[in-house]
Amino acid sequence: xxxxxxxxxxxxxxxxxxxxxxxxxxxxxxxxxxxxxxxxxxxxxxxxxxxxxxxxxxxxxxxxxxxxxxxxxxxxxxxxxxxxxxxxxxxxxxxxxxxxxxxxxxxxxxxxxxxxxxxxxxxxxxxxxxxxxxxxxxxxxxxxxxxxxxxxxxxxxxxxxxxxxxxxxxxxxxxxxxxxxxxxxxxxxxxxxxxxxxxxxxxxxxxxxxxxxxxxxxxxxxxxxxxxxxxxxxxxxxxxxxxxxxxxxxxxxxxxxxxxxxxxxxxxxxxxxxxxxxxxxxxxxxxxxxxxxxxxxxxxxxxxxx
Length: 306
Prior knowledge:
Blueprint: H1 6-17, H2 28-39, E1 47-53, E2 70-75, H3 102-107, E3 112-118, H4 124-128, H5 131-142, E4 147-153, H6 155-166, E5 174-178, H7 199-203, H8 207-216, E6 227-233, H9 245-248, H10 251-254, E7 260-263, H11 274-285, H12 293-303
Parallel strand pairs: 2-3, 2-4, 4-5, 5-6, 6-7
Antiparallel strand pairs: 1-3
């Protein structure tokens, strides 16, 4: 097993230590079958798009601050619901997406901040394709923002990536993927205490499911005029404790010259610590041009040991 995959092992130990449950001993083929079955089963996706800061005067209203040209949209990843099966079917913001979080307070200095939440009762690819996400971004354009930046953490990073690949004419100007399992994660093999309704979402994050989706999406590329950067959590040495470096910054993005920024952080802390929040705010403000093949190769040796 390549060294970069060791991060997956570490992450599974972390999950066990946190008493989240145990890994199910399921063959890879079964995981892929579950993901495919989930993809063919219709389900209602609950979504929520809100302005976080500055807070609007009316609930669900969106308003551009005077003179503000930039909007940042925060998109969350997996959130387990061991105590409530109903919550799987409801969209809810994570703590770092809320108005009082360190990240939101820092971003609010340079942008109006919004958040997108979704239920986790469908595969993540269905979330990326849900009309409310596209409509919400269109609404931001109508408000007059010249820059629309999507920041997706974990599975949210894969969601925003697929969105811009499938909507090359959208108004999004920059995407920041944070610790995104583009090639899946061993953590997705978790069974207990995952609720039955959430298993389609988790199954779509396995290595096998992502490989199958990658084949289906062969030829999809990041729009050339869109800035895109992968934030690679490297606090576990070869990953963030749940997702390997090679999954956070995969070969297909490297081939497109997508830059990578390594942070000595973990999957659980990257969106909550002040130092990481400051770095994300910096990435929002500064241009993120594509890298040359030589630069990609040099950083690849360091991050992915290839």
